[in-house]
């Protein structure tokens, strides 16, 4: 059986790095970054992908710094919406499957129980709106599409848009330096490791199913509970306090509850995620092994 040709857009990013690794060995993987193609430019996308002729394109590229999206909405829509449209158009012409990564921020957080794929999106900010627009372009532009909504990602590779440190590594550094941290408890999320999400991408891309899927770890917690679990699993003695209201005022409206239920994955018998604590444990073990 011939190897699949996989193009990972944003291949050097936090998620893209793990997607490349997850496909490696049994697939021919091409890592593409901004110097290889500019997704906001249709001609650039067409020239690059027509040359590679991939079977599957995984789009992990996005403008996802929420505050910057609010300040620069034209740029956010150019990348997150029009970029998705360009990828959908070109992959459709090539007969390729497009796997497009989206976000829990397409919801407003008012439901107070886990969102399924059937719930009506209602974003609160430019980032969420631009990502939702991208979803619509993908769905209408390429029948062979997989839209994956995920939440609170962390992984080994640095996320340049967020200063390089993911939440886990940031908490570990602050805990060791200060012995005390203050973390907000008014947002409920599902921490999800990029390694687990990458493995889910591989499974779905080979399953021959299309549509919109929620793809996060199981369970939920606040950012404060997440931080406390990080210190517990890392065996660090850190005083983990709940930040006072308005201690870290948000510059942009965000959903206070953005937990996703992997309903479509479970219906298809393809959900591979475990509890978020298990994902954290595997990440910390992987990190220890890398520095040993």
Can you offer a commentary on this structure?
With 292 residues, the chain is α/β, with parallel strands linked by helices. The chain has one domain: Rossmann fold (3-Layer(aba) Sandwich), CATH 3.40.50. The protein starts with a strand and ends with a helix. Strand 1 (4-9), helix 1 and strand 2 form a beta-alpha-beta unit. The protein has ten helices and twelve strands. The strands form four sheets. The protein has a six-stranded parallel sheet, with helices on both faces.
Query: Count of helices?
Result: 10
What proportion of the residues is helical, as a percent range? 40-55%
CATH superfamily: NAD(P)-binding Rossmann-like Domain
Report strand %: 15-25%
Structural class: alpha/beta
Q: Going across the major beta sheet, what is the strand order? A: 2-1-3-4-5-10
Task: Assign the CATH topology.
Answer: Rossmann fold
- The SSE string, one letter per element, is EHEHEHHEHEEHEEEHEEHEHH
How does the overall form come out from the CA principal axes? globular
Q: Round the Cα radius of gyration to an integer and report it.
A: 19 Å
The total number of structural domains is: 1
Tell me about the largest β-sheet.
6 strands, parallel
The CATH architecture: 3-Layer(aba) Sandwich
């Amino acid at each position: 059986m011939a190897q699949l040709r996989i193009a990972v857009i944003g291949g050097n990013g936090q998620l893209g790095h793990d997607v490349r690794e997850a496909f490696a060995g049994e697939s021919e993987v091409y890592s593409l970054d901004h110097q290889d193609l500019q997704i906001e430019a249709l001609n650039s996308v067409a020239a690059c992908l027509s040359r590679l002729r991939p079977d599957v394109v995984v789009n992990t590229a996005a403008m996802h710094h929420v505050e910057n999206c609010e300040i620069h909405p034209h740029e956010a829509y150019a990348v997150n919406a029009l970029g998705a449209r360009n990828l959908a158009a070109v992959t459709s012409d090539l007969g390729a499957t497009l796997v497009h990564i989206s976000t829990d921020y397409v919801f407003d957080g008012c439901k107070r129980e886990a969102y399924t794929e059937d719930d009506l999106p209602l974003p609160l900010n430019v980032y969420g709106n631009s990502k939702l627009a991208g979803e619509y372009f993908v769905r209408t532009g390429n029948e062979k599409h997989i839209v994956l909504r995920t939440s609170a990602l962390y992984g080994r590779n640095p996320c340049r848009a967020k200063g390089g440190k993911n939440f886990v590594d940031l908490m570990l550094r602050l805990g060791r330096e200060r012995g005390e941290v203050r973390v907000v408890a008014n947002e409920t999320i599902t921490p999800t490791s990029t390694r687990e999400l990458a493995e889910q991408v591989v499974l779905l891309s080979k399953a021959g199913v299309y549509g919109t899927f929620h793809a996060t770890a199981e369970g939920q917690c606040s950012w404060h509970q997440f931080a406390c679990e990080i210190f517990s699993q890392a065996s660090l003695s850190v005083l983990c306090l709940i930040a006072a209201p308005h201690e870290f005022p948000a510059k942009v409206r965000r959903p206070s509850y953005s937990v996703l239920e992997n309903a479509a994955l479970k219906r298809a018998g393809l959900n591979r995620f475990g509890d978020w604590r298990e994902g954290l444990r595997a990440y910390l073990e992987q990190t220890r092994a890398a520095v040993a």
